[in-house]
Amino acid sequence: MRPGLNSIILVVFLLLLDLYVFQAVRAMVYMSLPRVRTIAYVAYWSVSAVCIIMVLLLPYIHWHSWPAQLKSYLMAIFLGLVVAKLLAVVFLLIDDVRRGIVWLIHRFSPAQSTAAAEGAVNGISRSQFLSRLGLIAGGSLFGTLLYGFSNKYNYRVHKLKLAFKNLPASFRGLRIVQISDIHSGSFANHEAVAKGVAMINAQKADLILFTGDLVNDRADEMTQWMEVFSQIKAPMGVYSTLGNHDYGDYYPWPDKTPAGHSEMQQKNLERLKAVHGELGWKLMMNESVVLEKDGGQIALLGVENWSAIKRFPRHGDLRRAYDGVNHIPFKILMSHDPTHWDAQIRPEYPDIDLTLAGHTHGMQFGVEIPGLKWSPAQYFYKEWAGLYKAGEQRLYVNRGFGFLGYPGRVGVLPEITVIDLV
Questions:
Q1: Strands (E), 107-259
Q2: Fewest Cβ atoms closer than 10 Å to its Cβ: which of 137, 202, 229, 305?
Q3: What is the pTM of this model?
Q4: pLDDT tier, 124 (very low <50, low <70, confident <90, very high otherwise)
């Protein structure tokens, strides 16, 4: 099997990108010792050659059969290098545009010397300054992504207190722990995951709610993690829902027909549903339960994945889950995708007091410090991490317990949410 057109286009793009960025590398080490220049050139082109060779070999190396963890690391490094070079290109393009303007000025105004137009910044030309700045920016981004590999099991507990006027008095003080997006197929460190589960139990929750994406694709990803996650316990129970990945839509099932039907995929979903029960979790499939305490009642609703974004599945049936509990004064809904809140929950069900979601992972990359909360996720999701409020309704978006794709986290760490109702 020869590389397809897409692979050839990608290789050409990578070569052009490498050639362009190399001009900055060459300029940066131009005045260095010959040995230093040689090392820099060889290192740069060796890494670039490995990336290009990998792209060309993809049709021959049975990529889908490689270990998931190895694939995720290789893909993250490859994409990290490409993004870092693209960031460097931004600065190089600025310099090229600037130099083009300088050339035009010199061309039509001979009285002005090029040297004067070039100017200097701290003793170096503007071209050198922008080239170095571009390489530093790209290198810093790539280094940050590598550092993020060490953060994927760095669990953080987020605690908040929520007050609701219509919460029954007997439920004031109720402690809920929310977890989401376990993605067990991405895990490789049993001890680290077990530590995260111990942190969940250490919160001494009355009720534990899991809001979807137990696996990446296949139910058997949970096999080696059953003993760990079955330890999650709470006096009022552990309840769960399905996320978009739980349906197996992103896996190349061998028996999938052109119409999209797969018996293997359907059996996988049924097996995954059974896994929830074997963990001791109550899977909420468009249904509800009434929780009682000292004469008071609250309703807990759980729906299958429901997204306002077309590329994600929409199996959730909130009407079905809502019927039978409309008279209960206080309602909590588990719905994996936060776009459900603005698209249906708020306009059609204004008496659902608290919605718990996940899905976004905060894109596993961002900045969250006092006074600044930013992630690329915000350009795709209006509500992407943390607490949101509209009127008397609230939405909490969990940042995810696991990880997917990029095997790391930068700034947006894996989360265990603790909500005290007051």
A1: 120-121, 124-125, 156-162, 175-179, 207-210, 238-240
A2: 202
A3: 0.87
A4: low
Q: Which one, of 335, 376, 398, lies nearest residue 155 by Cα?
A: 398
Out of 124-138, 223-237, 305-319, least confident range: 124-138
| Mean pLDDT of all residues in 183-193 | 96
Widest Cα–Cα separation across the chain: 91
Output the average pLDDT for the chain: 92
Per-residue model confidence (pLDDT) at position 119:
53
Beta bridge partners of 158: 417
Q: Return the structure tokens found at 33.
A: 């010792």
Q: Considering just the CA atoms, what is the radius of gyration of the chain in Å?
A: 26
Residue showing tokens 């129970």:
237
Helix axes 34-57, 5-28, angle to 10 degrees: 170
Task: Tell how far CA 153 is from the center of its chain.
Answer: 14
Q: Can you tell me the distance from the alpha carbon of 95 to that of 326, in angstroms, rounded to the nearest whole number? A: 63
Nearest-angstrom CA–CA distance, 139 and 154: 24
φ, ψ for residue 363 (rounded to 5)? Answer: 55, 15
Average pLDDT over residues 273-298: 97
